Amino acid sequence: MSKQLMYICSPYRGNVKRNKEYARELTMKAIENGYLPVTVHLYITEVVHDEVPEEREFGMKVGTEILEKCQCILIGGRYGISEGMAGEIAKALDTGKMILAETVDGITESIDRAVLKRYADRFKHGWDTPEEGQ
Q1: Rounded to whole angstroms, what are the CA distances from 128 to 14, 73, 77?
Q2: I need a labelling partner for 92 at 20 to 30 A (CA). Which of 9, 25, 67, 109 fits?
Q3: Over the Cα atoms of the chain, what is R_g?
């Protein structure tokens, strides 16, 4: 059986140094678990400037196109879910991707899809919209 392409979904903005290290850690976990990881924010950000809105939008579009080619997505939520991640989660849910999450011991498929859907809905309807109950 051929290995599955796994899209690595984790934060980039904010503490970029920490977030890039986390993305590398997730990439290694994917390899150790038999996946072929695709961690676009480790290389797309080398050619587009994330702080320039037009370039960020272009980079996100390229990432979404790459996500479409992957069979599954690994969500690294250790530092929360960013707006960019929420967009990737929305795309994964809309296209029926297998969704996995990082755990202390590795990778798991047991994810609360209702929680993921809330993030996806916030992304689709305006990230600044407060979640229900807030």
Answers
A1: 17, 25, 19
A2: 25
A3: 14
